[in-house]
Amino acid sequence: MSDKPPFKLSKATLIEFAKKNRYVLIVVAVGIVVIFWPSKPVKPPVEAAVTPPTQAAGSEIDYGLDALQRELASLLGSVQGVGRVNVMLTVSGSTETVYARDGGNSTRTGQGGEVSSENTSQVAVVRGAGGEQAVIVKTIYPSYTGAVVVCDGADKPEVALAITRAIMSLTGLSSDKITIMPMSN
After folding, report:
1. Assuming Cys at both sites, which of 19, 39, 96, 99 could form a disulfide with 140, CB separation 3.0 to 4.6 Å?
2. Paired sense of beta strands 143-151 and 178-182, if any
3. Are residues 133 and 75 in the same domain?
4. How far is CA 28 from CA 12, 24, 120, in A?
5. DSSP letters of 15-80?
6. What are phi and psi of 181, to 5 degrees?
7. Domain membership of residue 20 as a residue range
8. Which residues contact 167 (CB under 8 A, 6 or more apart)?
């Protein structure tokens, strides 16, 4: 058997061990504190569900300002803490439709050797079962310039923030262009 006495844990032994390994003990202690440090749960950002405009068979989608304001008021009314809602959006410009054109240029040579060129392009049309219809290349919609929301619950900061974020994501407006106000009784 060995001549060494069994290991005894004493105060002097612990102090000697701590002096030799103080940096390791500091790192371990900091790690334990970080692991068990209480933290607030992170709330996910409020996201507004966007419902595309409804389209009846054979009709065009309604992207009108009035329809958008009604849909936005309906959507915001479903946000927790919001009651009655009125929404007003302002826009700059108007809707512009760009039509496809068939490229037609005609060149004529006159009696005296004069050459004249004339642009004879016309709007391209498609013939179908429903008759003739112009070919639309793109539609340019007006840009939003501001929004005002008057609603119940607007005096609560979390409700005002949720409404501001929803309007920002749906219109592309910055927060300084959005005003949220409480509704009077």
Report:
1. 96
2. parallel
3. no
4. 21, 6, 83
5. HHHHHHTHHHHHHHHHHHHHHH---PPPPPPP-PPPPPPP--TTS-----HHHHHHHHHHHHHTST
6. -130, 145
7. 9-39
8. 72, 147, 149, 173, 178
Six token digits for residue 50: 């966007």
For residues 86 and 109, membership in a common domain is answered with: no
- Our measurement of the distance from residue 118's CA atom to the centroid of its chain's CA atoms, rounded to an integer in Å, reads 47
Co-location of 106 and 74 in the same domain: no
Q: Is the pTM here over 0.90, yes or no?
A: no
Q: pLDDT tens for the chain, 185 residues: list them.
A: 556 666 677 888 878 888 888 888 888 888 888 888 776 555 444 333 333 344 444 444 445 778 888 888 998 988 888 889 999 998 888 788 888 877 666 666 666 667 666 666 677 777 777 787 888 888 887 888 999 999 998 999 999 999 999 999 988 999 999 999 998 87
Angstrom distances, CA of residue 82 to CA of 74, 171, 184? 11, 20, 13
Q: Report the Cα–Cα distance between both ends of the chain, in Å, rounded.
A: 93
Q: Residue 41 class from Cβ within 10 Å (0-12 exposed, 13-18 middle, 19+ buried)?
A: exposed
